[in-house]
Design a protein that fits this description.
- This protein is an alpha/beta fold and about 750 residues long.
- It has five domains: about 5-105, GIY-YIG endonuclease (3-Layer(aba) Sandwich); about 115-190, no CATH class; about 210-395, Rossmann fold; about 400-445 and about 500-635, Rossmann fold (3-Layer(aba) Sandwich), CATH 3.40.50.300; about 645-739, Ribosomal protein S10 (Alpha-Beta Plaits, 2-Layer Sandwich).
- It is about 35% helix and about 20% strand.
- Helix 10 (about 290-305) links the parallel strand 11 (about 285) and strand 12.
- Helix 1 crosses helix 11 (about 345-360), helix 3 (about 125-135) packs antiparallel against helix 4 (about 140-155) and helix 19 runs antiparallel to helix 20.
- Bound molecules: adenosine-5'-diphosphate and zinc ion (ZN) (2 copies).
Length: about 750
């Protein structure tokens, strides 16, 4: 590479302003993204500093006009330069533009800068101040004298006013600051986003033997010359948070900082509160409910070293700590750890990469680890720590599986099975509460038989077909298409169709079945306004309803001591989603759902309704047997070459003209087949994406499967170049998505 892109100002609205410089031969091998270099700039004779953001072979302007990099400013690595290096890694590994990657990792500054009020305060005692004033009055330092006199009177002065009215220039202020007479304070605009006044600090809890052993095992890993990331597989309620806190404590006692990643939906007041109670104002939090300015302030506090622990969703991974020691990823399996916009990075891998750049450690935890993470632990790429005991030996909830096919046979067409109805009734009599969970996720348009449970699947991909326009069934991996059958191809039953029940319908049925019983509903519709989520939870906690009906949202968050029954209305909703991860997702959701009940003194119970009572993900979830699930799931992935058995790259194309898109995707496929001729690459599609058209923009996908990640990255690189120069792609937006 002979040219480097360099940005001089890394404030976010200038990120796309990069300049090209020639790399002198002597530096060619050394220059890398993220480095700080000295460059000539404009007509000034002085060198300026800039960050290298990328390398290339092609000049963007006439080569003779391109200036040369003067030198590498070694030893001037900053937090930003490390984040820029991380952005370059993300661009390379996930596919995106460098600007997109930079915008992901660098804090987004508000257009109007957060008002930053500066104050001057007295840093010495009043007596010492009076003494000094007497001395100063004898000197010629008039401005200093005025400033000190005013300070002794008012204690705290507005910086701008002080410089205007008292002539306290920045030189004066600087001098007095160096002498330790004054101190600069900033306005409380950057106060903690959580009102911590109502949180009393709590002493650390005594760890159980098992938790203690987990901490020791992790520390042992950290003592190794190159520590591996550690995965904690801990059943719900085993006290993973206690272990995290102990590790954080050890990290910050060494003067380092920690990032705690928690999925947005689990990032509730209750969770964050626990960290505040333990670590006080060392903690800050960012979340999507904050304004951009608020978030920016929190990141700035981190950069300045005012806090040591940052809690937040995946974007908190890029907190600009200068001395990062630990990254924790709680609920590691959650899909929200995967970014849905370019670069479509995975938080786990990116965290591991950041940690490697900055010599930090990574610890992730889950009761139901992702198949990807667990398989890495099995290969000993990650350390594995187990927590098998629930704190206080609370029993695991009793789970029963109801076969919905039997309900139909017995003439019950309601979505509530006889068993679930009976159990609900008995709870109401005991004044206990019930949650009904509808694990509807994304787009579940599958067609199944209500008599025998048969689901229409793609013969090539073994994923559910989804129904389109009420007549055709489509596979979203390979594009396979077939007509919708009138009767079940297996048992001949006419009861074949889509499963349409939503939360609203279930609410209606519950009210009809149990007159007088009050219900609350929590789904996308009822939680759209600010604060509504918390309101519903609070109302349920205050027993304003006996039943809470909801989607994924109800599985996380609050503990309700009086909820003793959790009903999963139709496990098939997630089980028949049209992607290869649906069994994993079902297992995770069911385990979580079952773990919800019985958090208090009373034991919990769960009822799972399904047309597939024998499916391994349901069987394993009922007894919370992760190992059994993992083994079955891995053999399925191996058989069909799905990740982690192989790697998969989705090439997503979108554009306003269906025909142009179809053509472009077709050419892209031909191009792939032309540049890569080995038969170890599977090219599937193009096919319309699960949601084939959004707001008049058509979407298609090509899937590539290969055992080796690097090969896919290489093919992606070539596709990027092909797309850039090919006019057929001008109105088409291509995104890459690795899994
Ligand atoms: P997990 O994150 O593994 O689901 P938590 O950390 O939330 O588990 O712990 C579950 C419950 O048990 C919490 O209410 C927690 O306060 C309690 N707990 C766990 N470990 C301890 C301990 N060592 N001492 C006291 N309480 C504990
Ligand atoms: Zn059937
Ligand atoms: Zn298919």
């Amino acid at each position: 590479m002979i040219y480097a892109d360099i940005i001089i100002d890394i404030s976010s609205d200038k990120l796309d302003r990069s300049f090209q410089y020639r790399i002198p031969e002597r530096l060619e091998k050394e220059i890398k993204a993220g480095m700080v270099v000295a460059i000539p700039f404009g007509n000034s004779s002085q060198l300026r500093k800039g960050y290298v953001t990328g390398l290339s072979d092609k000049p963007k302007i006439a080569p003779e006009k391109i200036k040369e990099i003067s030198k590498i400013c070694s030893g001037e690595e900053t937090t930003e330069s490390r984040l820029i290096a991380l952005a370059a890694w993300m661009r390379e590994n996930y596919g995106s533009t460098m600007i997109q990657a930079l915008r992901t990792v660098l804090p987004v500054q508000e257009k109007i800068r957060a008002k930053e009020k500066k104050y001057i305060c007295l840093a010495i005692s009043e007596d010492a101040g009076c003494q000094m004033l007497k001395e100063l009055e004898q000197t010629r330092f008039k401005a200093r004298t005025r400033l000190l006199r005013e300070l002794l009177e008012k204690k705290r002065l507005d910086f701008t006013r002080a410089s205007k009215e008292l002539g306290a220039t920045s030189a004066v202020v600087k001098k007095m600051k160096e002498q330790g007479i004054i101190r600069i304070e900033y306005d409380e605009i950057m106060r903690n986003p959580l009102n911590i006044d109502d949180i009393t600090e709590e002493a650390p809890m005594l760890l159980t033997d098992e938790q203690e052993a987990a901490v020791r095992q992790i520390q042992k890993e950290w003592e190794k010359p190159s520590p591996r990331p550690v995965l904690i597989e801990g059943v719900t309620g085993s006290g993973k948070t206690q272990v995290y806190m102990k590790l954080i404590e050890k990290t910050i006692s060494q003067g380092k900082e920690a990032i705690v990643l928690i999925p947005e939906i689990a990032l509730t007041y209750q969770t964050v509160r626990r960290f505040y109670a333990r670590f006080g104002d060392k903690v800050s939090v960012i979340n999507s409910r904050q304004s951009q300015g608020e978030r920016y302030d929190q990141l700035r506090r981190a950069k300045r070293g005012e806090i040591q622990i940052m809690i937040g969703p995946r974007s908190a991974l890029f907190t600009p700590f200068a001395n990062l020691g630990l990254i924790i990823i709680d609920e590691e399996h959650e899909p929200s750890y995967k970014s849905e916009s370019s670069p479509r990075y995975h938080t786990r891998e990116t965290a591991i990469q950041r940690a490697a750049f900055e010599h930090a450690n990574v610890v992730m935890g889950s009761a139901t680890p992702s198949v990807e993470a667990y398989s890495k632990a099995m290969k000993e790429e990650y350390g594995l720590v187990r927590l098998n005991v629930r704190y206080g030996s609370r029993p695991m909830p009793q789970v029963s599986i109801v076969d919905l096919r039997e309900e139909l046979k017995a003439g019950n067409r309601s979505v509530l099975s006889r068993e679930l109805r009976e159990k609900m009734k008995s709870r109401f009599e005991k004044k206990e509460q019930v949650m009904l969970f509808l694990n509807r996720r994304g787009y579940a348009g599958f067609v199944s038989c209500r008599s025998c449970g048969h689901v229409m699947k793609c013969p090539h991909c073994d994923v559910s077909l989804s129904e389109h326009n009420n007549e055709r069934l489509l596979c979203h991996y390979c594009g396979y298409e077939t007509g919708k059958p009138e009767t079940c191809p297996v048992c001949g039953s006419p009861y074949i169709g889509g499963f349409k029940a939503g939360t609203q319908q279930i609410e209606k049925i519950v009210r009809e079945t149990f007159p007088g019983i009050r219900t609350l509903r929590m789904d996308f519709d009822t939680t759209r306004t600010k604060g509504s989520y918390e309101k519903i939870l609070a109302a349920f906690a205050a027993h304003e309803a006996e039943v809470l009906i909801g989607t994924q949202m109800i599985v996380k968050g609050h503990d309700f001591p009086d909820v003793t029954l959790m009903g999963v209305v139709a496990a098939d909703l997630s089980l028949n989603a049209e992607d290869y991860r649906c069994a994993e997702r079902t297992f995770q959701l069911l385990c979580q759902a079952a773990g919800r009940g019985g958090r208090g003194e009373k034991p919990g119970e769960a009822v799972i309704q399904t047309y597939h009572p024998d499916h391994y993900s349901i069987q394993a979830a009922a007894v919370q047997d992760y190992q059994a699930f993992y083994e079955e799931e891995m053999s399925y992935r191996m058989l069909l070459d799905y990740p982690p058995a192989a790697h998969m790259l989705a090439v997503l194309g979108s554009g306003p003209e269906d025909e142009k898109l179809t053509q472009a995707m077709h050419y892209l496929k031909l191009y792939i087949e032309r540049i890569y001729k080995e038969n170890d690459l599977h090219v599937i599609g193009p096919a319309y994406a699960a949601v084939g058209k959004v707001k008049d923009i058509y979407r298609q996908v090509i899937y590539l499967k290969h055992k080796d990640y690097k090969t896919l990255v290489h093919i992606k690189d070539q596709m990027e170049k092909y797309i850039e120069i090919n006019s057929g792609f001008r109105k088409i937006y291509i995104q890459f998505d690795f899994s």
